[in-house]
Amino acid sequence: MTRDTLEQNQIPVYFVTVALAIALGLLAPSASQHLELLVTPAIAMLMYAMFLQIPFLDLRQGLSNGRFMAALLLANFVLIPLLVWSLTRGLVDHPAILLGALLVLLTPCIDYVVVFTHIGKGDARLMLAATPVLLLLQLLLLPVYLGLMLGAQSGVVVAVGPFVEAFVLLIVAPMILAVLTATLSRRSAVISRWYDVWAWLPVPAMALVLLVVIGSQIVSVVRDIELLAPVIPVYIGFLLLAPLMGALASRVFTLPATAARAVTFSAATRNSLVVLPLALALPDGVRELAAAAVITQTLVELVGELAYVRLIPALLRSTGRPPAS
């Protein structure tokens, strides 16, 4: 099997993995505790593998595409937060679920969104080049959004320490290692070979993360499904309306079809796998339901992506506009 073949077949790999994770979690619930221990290292490995694919050293390439970046930021950090705020007002009496929903819906995806963008005939290279900006801005703005949308009346106290620890372990350390690896690979044959080996690993690493994340949490989702019921309409509403936010932002900046599709996929695809450890770092009275809410969004979103890859190209047809610049 070639690397291209693996990447071309990654979506079936992910869905088979999700099915296996659900079966494993439900048929062997005692294994979920062991799988949960693997969540943080598995996500750290995935982030390192993904960061190696992100052109941090060529960041100006993504930033130089002004209209695309403006539309992407408008969609993800203005329109989507407004949509999330309006959709989640019915959850104010369910603070744990509200927090989980906010964590996942306010953070744009930086990993498999590139894959779905490519399959959905969007500009995957633009999407990939923009991921460092999306990552840095969501880390800066998430605390602001949470403070505004949770409010003092929620009764949820979020300790800063566990969030900082998760941020360092899952974002900062893998990012620094990836940048160092990319830099040194240009000077060292050994590091270059290491870099080439890791180029194969994003798909297996993503599959591993899906396995341990869903396998470790699916029992909680099934057990608490009645408590989680209020958030499911929120996720379905987001699934239906988020692409329209991306399309609107693209229209404002008159993007060509492929760039508009990339913005739309970004607006509709969330960063659930990365924010799950943040949910697991919450206080005891909140952690389980918040984490289950994050996993529920993942399951809803993966089903929605199957529709997106067909509907988004149809929604945003080529109009012969010049490339974004």
From TrEMBL:
Nucleotidyltransferase in keyword set: no
Q: Which InterPro entries match?
A: Arsenical-R_Acr3, BilAc:Na_symport/Acr3, Na+/solute_symporter_sf
One GO CC term on file:
plasma membrane
Name any one Pfam family assigned in the record.
SBF
List the signal peptide residues: none
Task: Write one Gene Ontology MF term.
Answer: antimonite transmembrane transporter activity
Q: What's the protein's topology in the membrane?
A: Multi-pass membrane protein
Instruction: Recite the UniProt keywords alphabetically.
Output: Cell membrane, Membrane, Transmembrane, Transmembrane helix, Transport
TM segment ranges = 12-31, 37-56, 68-88, 94-114, 126-146, 166-185, 197-219, 231-250
UniProt keyword Membrane present: yes
Protein's cellular compartments: Cell membrane
Q: What family is reported?
A: Belongs to the arsenical resistance-3 (ACR3) (TC 2.A.59) family.
Please report the name of this protein according to its UniProt entry: Arsenite efflux pump ArsB, ACR3 family
Organism in which the protein naturally occurs: Pseudomonas mucidolens
